[in-house]
Amino acid sequence: MRRFFAIILFILCAVSPVSAEEIAVAAASDLNFAIKEVIGEFEKQTGHRVKLSLGSSGNFYAQLQQGAPFDLYFSADIGYPKKLEEAGLTVPGSLYRYAVGRVVLWAPKTSSLDLAKGLTVLREPTIKKIAIANPKHAPYGRAAVAAMEHAQVYADVKDRLVLGENISQAAQFIESGACDVGIIALSLALAPAMKSAGSYWEIPAEAHPPLEQGAAILKQSKHQELARNFLSFLQGSQGQEIMIRYGFTLPK
């Protein structure tokens, strides 16, 4: 009997490393906390691995055009994966609108700002630095600029803007005290660390173009089936519950 169990253990140890695969995922940094939870559950249930890289959607788009070695791309702007699809760089039929994002005005709990005033509070002379993501390549940065223009405050505050490389870096600027206030993703404001460190005011959806977010499997991927499985997991009940908890509106 002991020998039997030893043989079974040997087989398991020999087979599992071979059967386990890994996919490389490039994801917009607004997904930082949500996608890490999704990955954790997916890895636990399947035994496969997901190597995550977070950054700005625009920078990843440029890298993928040059053949960056990713299997799956999650963008905060569905327009980027659509362009990759048009260029023949994605698996046909894999484009998926996985969520609609929201932006918020966030300030630390030590701040005396009345966020209930909305974006007009940005005119306060006590505010020296306002953090947003760089609108050149970050969709949340573009949404922030559009919202400020909608509130007719952009011209008054543009010289006080501090641009983060991506939305996570913009959030770090405020959380660390390097900036007084900022416009960040709701998904980051709902993360435990930021939720306990500050407060936010949700910017109305009509104040900026919708942040439709999209994912696609890259044609160069050698693990397309596993990438499909991960997308399916995100679309399932566990993945959807996590996305809702971080403030994303889900596609119908």
From TrEMBL:
Domain of life: Bacteria
Record-linked Pfam families: SBP_bac_11
Leader sequence segment: 1-20
Keyword annotations of the record: Metal-binding, Signal
NCBIfam families linked: modA
Family: Belongs to the bacterial solute-binding protein ModA family.
UniProt-recorded name of the protein: Molybdenum ABC transporter, periplasmic molybdenum-binding protein ModA (TC 3.A.1.8.1)
